[in-house]
Specification:
Elements: H1 3-23, H2 33-58, H3 64-85, H4 93-110
Helix pairs in contact: 1-2, 1-3, 3-4
């Protein structure tokens, strides 16, 4: 598998874990905050197991700014799906516009300027 595709797949897996670690507890407030922190930390361990290799492999084909940009775009996609399907929070036109500006920023990061 090409390193760029491997990187994107690993970053996507990482972001799935990250999103649940950071936001998965928001629907249920019955668990104490210390337990939520410990559980989130445990989930985040798996995030790191995907993120570190993704960055190591990705750095062979992307520079650091490009890697971070890819990660942020993936984060927005994963979070958008999570927000709608799990948290049941709708996304509006303002979210789409804001995300569009971030994608536009990604264009500027990846475009080869002379």
């Amino acid at each position: 598998m090409p390193p760029a595709l491997t990187t994107i797949l690993l970053l996507t897996a990482s972001n799935l874990f990250m999103t649940f670690a950071w936001y998965g507890h928001l629907k249920d407030h019955s668990t104490g905050i210390l337990m939520v922190i410990v559980m989130s930390w445990g989930i985040a361990f798996f995030e790191y197991c995907f993120m570190v290799p993704a960055n190591r492999i990705g750095y062979t084909v992307f520079n650091a700014a490009q890697l971070k940009t890819i990660q942020e775009v993936i984060t927005l996609v994963v979070f958008s799906v999570f927000s709608v399907l799990y948290l049941k929070e709708p996304l509006g036109w303002n979210h789409a516009l804001g995300f569009g500006f971030i994608v536009l920023g990604a264009f500027f990061i990846f475009h080869k300027w002379s």
